[in-house]
Specification:
Helix content is about 5%, strand content about 35%. By secondary structure, it is mainly beta.
C-alpha cells in the first residue's frame, strides 16, 4: 500500500456531531464545478471542461468534512451505491477498503499550490473546515452562515501520484492544460461513534471530469 507524503489521522474529524440518519433523509454536502465563472452541469454524470483552471464549490451542511477520491481509475467510482463505501473488513491490509481515515493523504494548507492530487485506490483526501483548527485544505476565504459552510478549491495543476510512484523523473506535477485523461471523482460523508465497526455512509456524490 502506497501513501502520499505523511498520513494524517482524521478519524476525529469524521466523528462530528451528526445524528445517525439514513442517507436519503438529508443532503450533508454538495459539490459543483465552476469554470470561467459558470457552473458546469453534469450530463449523464460527466462534466466536460476546458483544459484550464476550474473550481470545486463545496457546501457542507451539518458536517464539517467530506471524503474525496480523485482517481484515474474506478476503484471508488464503481463501488455499488447499495454498499457502505466506508466499510473496511480488513483494517490491517486495507483489502477492499475504500474510505478509511488512516489512508488519508496530506495536501497543502489553504490549497496553496492549487493542485488536484490524482492517483489510484491507494489514495484519498479529506476536505474539512473546523474552527478549532487554524488551517484547512480549501482556498482561503471559507464562509460559514448558520452552520452551513461554503468553500472553494481552485485547481490549476495536477499532482499525478501514479506517475510519481512509477519513478519516471519529475514530470508528475504539471499544469491542467497538459492533462490527457478523465478523472473519476467520488465524494462521501460519514457518521461514526465509538463502538461502531465502520462509519455509516450518509451521502455520496460522484462525477467524471472530462477535458477537451
Amino acid at each position: 500500500m502506497k501513501y502520499i507524503l505523511a498520513l494524517v489521522l482524521l478519524a476525529s474529524f469524521s466523528c462530528s456531531t451528526l445524528k445517525n440518519k439514513k442517507i436519503e433523509d438529508q443532503n450533508y454536502f454538495n459539490v459543483e464545478i465552476e469554470q470561467n465563472g459558470v457552473i458546469i452541469k453534469p450530463i449523464n454524470g460527466v462534466i466536460t471542461l476546458d483544459k484550464s483552471s476550474f473550481k470545486f464549490n463545496v457546501s457542507l451542511d451539518k458536517t464539517d468534512n467530506v471524503y474525496v477520491s480523485s482517481s484515474w481509475d474506478k476503484y471508488y467510482y464503481d463501488y455499488p451505491l447499495s454498499e457502505n463505501i466506508f466499510k473496511c473488513a480488513d483494517k490491517n491490509f486495507f483489502k477492499e477498503c475504500r474510505f478509511i481515515a488512516v489512508k488519508t493523504g496530506n495536501q497543502t494548507k489553504f490549497n496553496a499550490d492549487k493542485e488536484l492530487f490524482v492517483g489510484d485506490g491507494s489514495y484519498q483526501w479529506n476536505w474539512f473546515y473546523i474552527k478549532a483548527i487554524k488551517w484547512h485544505r480549501f482556498d482561503k476565504g471559507v464562509k460559514e452562515d448558520n452552520g452551513k459552510i461554503k468553500a472553494t478549491m481552485t485547481i490549476e495543476n495536477i499532482y499525478d501520484l501514479d506517475r510519481r510512484d512509477e519513478g519516471k523523473g519529475d514530470g508528475y506535477e504539471y499544469s491542467i492544460d497538459k492533462i490527457d485523461k478523465d478523472i473519476y471523482m467520488v465524494f462521501a460523508a460519514s457518521f461514526y461513534e465509538k463502538g461502531m465497526e465502520s462509519p455509516n455512509e450518509l451521502q455520496r456524490q460522484k462525477i467524471v471530469l472530462k477535458f477537451k
